[in-house]
Amino acid sequence: MGIKNRLTSLLDERSMNTNELAQRINVTPSTLYSLLQRDSNRIDIDLIMKISHALGITADELLTDEISQLTEPAASSAPVDVQKAQLLKYYELLNEEGRNRLIEQAQFFASQDKYKETKIDESAG
Question: Is the pTM of this model over 0.70?
């Protein structure tokens, strides 16, 4: 199952229709109708971001039903995949100087214990 039920429910909660949402996010209504018709799990990240912003929710909240329908290991990685796509999108918008600065910032954060992912103690094996 794709995004159809979740988006339809969110639109109903906000007393909004597909045409109104399309107008808010500056896409053609046929783009949204196509998305709903094919009920796809593969959606362009830009469209996800536009829809979630217009509805006042996060991308994760928009995709919540999709994530919960996946198996456990995949479900835990799905929000990270959205974040990775967002980060890559922003990276691609930058010029060379901006990209270098972004990498420097990422290196800084990666060097700070409070921002690191919790690692499994390999010696405890």
Answer: no
The candidate with the shortest Cα–Cα distance to 46, out of 26, 65, 29, 64, is 26
Residue 125 lies in a domain: no
Instruction: Summarize pLDDT for 52-85 with one digit per residue, the tens.
Output: 889 888 887 787 754 444 334 444 445 556 777 7
CATH number at residue 102: 1.10.260.40
Phi, psi of 33 (to 5 degrees): -60, -40
Distance CA 102, CA 110 (A): 12
Q: What tokens appear for 60 in the block?
A: 């994760």
Q: Which helix (H) or strand (E) holds 15?
A: none
**40, 2 in Cβ contact below 8 A?**
yes
